[in-house]
Amino acid sequence: MIKPILIVGSDTGVGKTVLTAALAAYxxxxxxxxxxxxxxxxxxxxxxxxxDREFYDQTFSLSQTLDEITPLYFxxxxxxxxxxxxxxxxxxxxxxxxxxxxxxxxxxxxxxxxMGGLGSPITDEYIVADLARDWAxxxxxxxxxRLGAISQxxxxxxxxxxxxxxxxxxxxxxxxxxxxEEIEELAPPQMISRLASVPILGILPYVxxxxxxxxLARAASELDIERILI
Length: 230
Known about the structure:
Elements: E1 5-9, H1 16-31, H2 36-39, E2 40-43, E3 46-48, H3 52-59, H4 66-69, E4 72-74, H5 80-87, H6 93-106, E5 109-113, E6 121-123, E7 126-127, H7 128-134, E8 138-144, H8 149-162, E9 167-173, H9 180-186, H10 189-196, E10 200-204, H11 213-221
Parallel strand pairs: 1-5, 1-8, 2-5, 3-4, 8-9, 9-10
Antiparallel strand pairs: 6-7
Helix pairs in contact: 1-11, 8-10
């Protein structure tokens, strides 16, 4: 049984979904070739607007319905807490917790994708960091290879420490092809790890075709996978 992990981003559009998909593809390709659709679970508790849960449903042969992937869905593509207020729908924390427990019991590998970063609001009084702490989830922080990566990483690690969130490590994510020299200039791994006092679990290379499971699996194999899927 793999300990469930929560994949969060240091900002919007930094590669949470790509990392989640890459880890799922790795599991399907290398870890469980017998009943992968039954052993793998992907969970995004809340979603606003079409996107991630539909992508997971179309890309992977999951034994989950859309509502089992994401039990709380809002049509307005803005922060769930704001979308819920706008649409007049409640955010049922009990519902998303019960669905998490159900998947945790059913699946060998459960990947939980956050709705935003650790500081993203779930309700007016509850943020993603609260959920990570209350659900006792280890967190993987996705930081983009771009200017500002260092300060984003340090700020998110500081929040994790304040909220007593267990941060397993950082994955640097490439939104395009970068040379090692460019990565060192934009998001130097050793500097980020030293300043944040958190290990770097690898650099996720750019994946051109997110529907290609083999490409996704190869990308995940570039990471310190034994420290991620444990």
